[in-house]
């Protein structure tokens, strides 16, 4: 049932994407299709906000708009552009330092030559005036070296500061690319990165890893009834409640639209179920009020699907099982948690397919009485 529903949604988003391109007179290129597909699917909140903002300012989307939107939100150009700009700035700083070091090396060579000349003059019979002139020259060269070293030290300190700022700015920009601007939790890209990291860690240390996929119940009806501004407040409330009730090592992200995902490292399925019910219970106590009138608009409930990762399992299958459990929770009445467990045979099939070897635990030697009774 969940698979059929997902296929219907996918077909609907595809149809809406084609209609949008036709409406705005755009060629049905793969990039244009991707922009509108992710917009109608709502799985890229940053892209959706950007398109909504453009459409609030103009009647149509131009081809240039679509190209810019794709590069900024879907292509790898956004992150590559930041990386390129940072690398260019770092290269400029390195060239500046190397140039300063080269000048310092040239001056040092000249200074060494002056000292060698002075030493030779002292070893040879010479007049007092010549000695005085040589000493003056060495003194001048020494002062020049001191000034040169001071300039080099100042330049190196400045470069160190510049590189520190560049690193900070790059880290900030990289972080912003992985944060959902509305809820301020991770976005889909952040989740994908953390999912890979977490499953690799679970594989290496043998610790359990669970995934919760949550969906706000009747969000679309709530959004349609009270408007997008109130809907945004609901999304923020849900995200804030999750952050307040989870541990620092837990990973929270907005998966798309009104869906959130939570990775729970070092957490088995039954403990993940307890965490999910705690979140659900805490949200049940929240009420949405309209700030302008203080009117109570209702409460918020969520449905949650919970699964545990098995070594060798494909990431897509891991997420798909959570999605299936979520749809089961919604079909069974919403405001509940549904766990999906695999049978021992299914687990063994996953391990066999992935060539995962699980060693048997050593058993203790036990003396057995074999005397016939």
Layout of helices and strands:
Layout: H1 2-23, H2 30-41, H3 45-57, H4 63-73, H5 77-123, H6 128-176, H7 188-205, E1 209-216, H8 219-226, H9 228-245, E2 251-256, E3 259-265, H10 269-284, E4 287-290, E5 295-299, E6 302-308, H11 315-331, E7 337-339, H12 344-354
Parallel strand pairs: 6-7
Antiparallel strand pairs: 1-3, 1-6, 2-3, 4-5
Helix pairs in contact: 1-2, 2-3, 2-4, 5-6, 8-9, 9-10
Q: What average pLDDT do the residues reach?
A: 78
**CATH fold assignment of the largest domain:** Alpha-Beta Plaits
Number of domains: 3
Radius of gyration: 33 Å
What shape does the CA trace take? Answer: elongated
Query: Helix fraction?
Result: 55-70%
What can you tell me about this protein's structure?
- This protein has 12 helices and 7 strands.
- By secondary structure, it is of the alpha+beta class.
- Strands 2-3-1-6-7 form a 5-stranded mixed sheet, sandwiched between helices. The protein has a two-stranded antiparallel sheet with strand order 4-5.
- Helix 1 crosses helix 2, helix 2 crosses helix 4 and helix 8 packs across helix 9.
- The longest helix is centred in the middle third of the chain and has 49 residues.
- 65% of the residues lie in helices and 11% in strands.
- The protein has 3 domains: 67 residues, no CATH class; 99 residues; 167 residues, Reverse transcriptase/Diguanylate cyclase domain (Alpha-Beta Plaits, 2-Layer Sandwich), CATH 3.30.70.
């Amino acid at each position: 049932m969940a698979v059929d529903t997902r296929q219907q949604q996918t077909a609907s988003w595809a149809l809406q994407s084609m209609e949008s391109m036709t409406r705005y007179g755009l060629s049905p290129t793969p990039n244009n299709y991707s922009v509108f597909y992710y917009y109608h699917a709502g799985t890229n909140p940053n892209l959706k906000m950007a398109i909504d903002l453009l459409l609030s300012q103009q009647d149509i989307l131009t081809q240039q708009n679509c190209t810019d939107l794709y590069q900024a939100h879907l292509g790898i150009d956004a992150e590559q552009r930041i990386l390129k700009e940072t690398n260019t700035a770092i290269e400029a700083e390195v060239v500046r330092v190397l140039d300063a070091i080269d000048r310092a090396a040239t001056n040092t060579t000249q200074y060494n030559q002056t000292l060698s000349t002075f030493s030779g003059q002292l070893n040879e019979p010479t007049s007092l005036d010549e000695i005085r002139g040589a000493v003056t020259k060495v003194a001048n060269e020494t002062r020049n070296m001191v000034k040169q070293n001071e300039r080099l030290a100042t330049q190196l300190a400045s470069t160190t500061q510049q590189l520190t700022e560049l690193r900070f700015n790059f880290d900030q920009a990289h972080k912003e690319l992985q944060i959902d601007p509305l809820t301020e939790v991770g976005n889909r890209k952040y989740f994908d990165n953390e999912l890979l990291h977490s499953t690799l860690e679970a594989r290496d240390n043998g610790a359990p890893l669970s995934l919760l996929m949550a969906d706000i119940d009747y969000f679309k009806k709530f959004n349609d009834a009270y408007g997008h501004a109130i809907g945004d407040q609901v999304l923020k409330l849900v995200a804030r409640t999750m952050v307040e009730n989870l541990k620092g090592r837990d990973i929270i992200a907005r998966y798309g639209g009104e869906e959130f995902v939570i990775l729970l490292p070092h957490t088995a399925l039954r403990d993940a179920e307890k965490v999910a019910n705690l979140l659900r219970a805490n949200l049940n106590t929240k009420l949405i009020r309209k700030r302008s009138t203080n009117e109570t608009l209702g409460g918020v409930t969520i449905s949650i699907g919970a699964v545990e990762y098995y070594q060798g399992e494909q990431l897509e299958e891991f997420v798909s099982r959570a999605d299936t459990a979520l749809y089961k929770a919604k079909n069974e009445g919403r405001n509940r948690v549904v766990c999906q467990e695999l049978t021992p045979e299914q687990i063994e099939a996953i391990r066999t397919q992935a060539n995962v070897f699980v060693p048997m635990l050593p058993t203790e030697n036990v003396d057995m009485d074999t005397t016939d009774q």
